[in-house]
Amino acid sequence: MIKIQNLHKSYGNTAILKGIDVEIKEGEVLAIIGPSGSGKSTFLRCLNFLEKAEKGIIQIDGEEVNLENFHKSQAVKLRGKTGMVFQNYNLFKNKTALHNVSEPLRLTKKISKKQAELIASDMLAEVGLKGKEFNYPVALSGGQQQRVGIARALALNPYVILFDEPTSSLDPELVEEVLNVMKAVIKQGRTMIVVTHEMEFAKDVADRVIFMADGHIVEEGTPKELFENPQNERTKRFLKNYLSLHNFGGVGI
C-alpha cells in the first residue's frame, strides 16, 4: 500500500503541490495526466526524495516519513522502495548499458559485481536488449536508452516503479517500443505510477487515472469513468483540447 497525505511542495513563493492525498494498492497501475506545470513530475520526484516536500506524510510498503520531522535514514529506506524511470533517460554516458543497470544495483543492494551484472544482463534481455549489453548510450536509440532505464528500475526490484513521462523525449516511431515494454512490466503485476501524455496508453492499461491541475488532484476514477464521463469542467476542457489535437477516441465531453 502507498499512502500520501497532505503533500505540499513549493519553489520559493510558488506553490507546486497544494495538499495531495492519494492511496495506491499493491499491484495497481495509476496513471497521472494533466497539463504541463500541474505538478505531476514534482509529485513523483517527492515520492523518492529527488525533491523534498515541505509538508505531508509519505507511506510506502510500511515505511513512513513525516516530512516535517524525519531522519535521513528514514528517507533512504523509503527511497529504496521506489525505482524511477526518467523522461530524459538519465544514463551515465561513459558506462555501457550493462554497467548503467548493474552499478546502481551494487550501490543500493551491496551485492557483488558478478551477481549485479548477471541480474543486469537478465533485465536487459527482459526489455529486449539482449546483445546490447556492452553498447554505450551514444550507440543506442532513444527507445533503447529508455529501455535501459526501465531495466535499471526493474533490477532494483522496488515496491513501486515511478515513470516520469517516459516517452516524451522520444521520436514518435520509438514511442510504441517503450510502451510495449511497459505493458509487459504491467503484466508482471508490479505497482506502477505513470505520469504520461499518452492518453490511449493510460486508457488501456491503468487501473485508475488521476487528473491533476494547478497543484491539485481535480478528478480521479477508472479510465472509463474519467475518459468517457468526466465530471469536472477542468477535466472536460483538458480532454476536449487533447481530443482536438490528437484525434483521441472514447472521450465523453
TrEMBL record:
Q: How does it sit in the membrane?
A: Peripheral membrane protein
Q: Where in the cell is it found?
A: Cell membrane
Coiled-coil annotated spans = none
Give a Pfam family name: ABC_tran
Note whether Ion transport occurs among the keywords.
no
Q: Nucleotide-binding among the record's keywords?
A: yes
Tell me the domain of life: Bacteria
| Single annotated GO MF | ATP binding
Q: Which UniProt keywords apply?
A: ATP-binding, Cell membrane, Membrane, Nucleotide-binding, Transport
Q: Which InterPro entries match?
A: AAA+_ATPase, ABC_ATPase_HisP-typ, ABC_transporter-like_ATP-bd, ABC_transporter-like_CS, MetN_ABC_transporter-like, P-loop_NTPase
- Name of this protein: Amino acid ABC transporter ATP-binding protein
